[in-house]
Specification:
The structure is a single chain. This protein has seven helices and nine strands; from the N terminus they run ββαβαβαβαββαααββ. It is elongated and about 70 Å long. A hairpin with a 2-residue loop joins strand 6 and strand 7. With 254 residues, it is α/β, with parallel strands linked by helices.
């Protein structure tokens, strides 16, 4: 984690300025971001600003040693970016060196993303949802956690990644329970106490289908009907979905 102000060159350590064309809010300066990204990513200095022009009183620790070998992938959280999904997290987890640029105010000058793309750096502008935050720090934490948990050794039991929500099956996760078997006049479904693995698997699959149909119809619509068995189709039919021309659609209701 790095303090952007370490790469400013004025006494006030300014990282933003008023937007060209007018309007409310402030925009983060490209020259400051350029120096910071070049240093953190281990790219050559002098293209977007000489690192030596920055605050001479800053700690040398502000410029970390470059990570050798792995190409840099620049991630910019922004509400105007493409949607960050589990598939995105899986793609980023395969990268060797991610640099996350946390914007604030009205965002980062658009030339930063344009400049690094022109230099051959892969740049992803990502949105974690259809809402606006004060800054990119929280979004960066979301990206870091979603990506890091996919790396070997981070999650204690790798099998826990297989059937979770938004996994390869394209469904939300089924309801989960633990001890005690009875609590607040509510009991764990008998099938989960049966020890019958095939029945448990079928129950979990059914519940995942029902939950997804109730909460995320967009995910049901995106399912590949060819991957569904007859029981899946029956469960979805009960939830109001039917297969038409190889695609899942909401059933007509009179």
């Amino acid at each position: 984690m790095h303090d952007l102000r370490a790469w400013t060159s004025d006494r006030h350590r300014t990282v933003d300025d008023t937007p060209f064309g007018g309007g409310a809010g402030m925009v983060m300066r490209p020259d400051v971001w350029g120096r910071a990204i070049d240093a953190v990513a281990g790219l050559d200095a002098g293209v977007v600003g000489d690192v030596g022009d920055a605050d001479p009183d800053r700690s040398d620790d502000a410029v970390p040693p470059a990570r050798s070998g792995a190409p840099v992938h620049l991630v910019i959280p922004t509400p105007s970016g493409t949607t960050f999904t589990q598939r995105t997290a899986e793609e980023l987890a395969r990268e060797g060196h991610l640099v996350v640029a946390c914007g604030r105010y009205e965002g980062i000058d658009a030339r930063v993303a344009e400049h690094y793309r022109s230099r051959g750096v892969r740049v992803s502008e990502l949105s974690i949802g259809d809402y606006v935050l004060n800054g990119g720090e929280v979004a960066a934490l979301v990206v870091v956690e979603a990506v890091a948990r996919l790396l070997p050794g981070v999650v204690g039991n790798p099998e826990s990644l297989v059937e979770e929500s938004h996994g390869a099956a394209g469904l939300l996760e089924y309801p989960v329970y633990t001890k005690p078997p009875a609590w607040a006049d509510l009991e764990v479904p008998d099938v989960l106490l049966s020890g019958h693995h095939a029945r448990i698997h079928r129950w979990r699959r059914d519940e995942a289908l029902r939950r997804t149909a109730a909460r995320r119809p967009d995910m049901v619509r995106a399912l590949d009907a060819a991957t569904l068995d007859a029981h899946d189709v029956d469960v979805l039919a009960e939830a109001g979905w039917q297969v038409r021309d190889g695609r899942l659609e909401l059933a007509d209701r009179d």
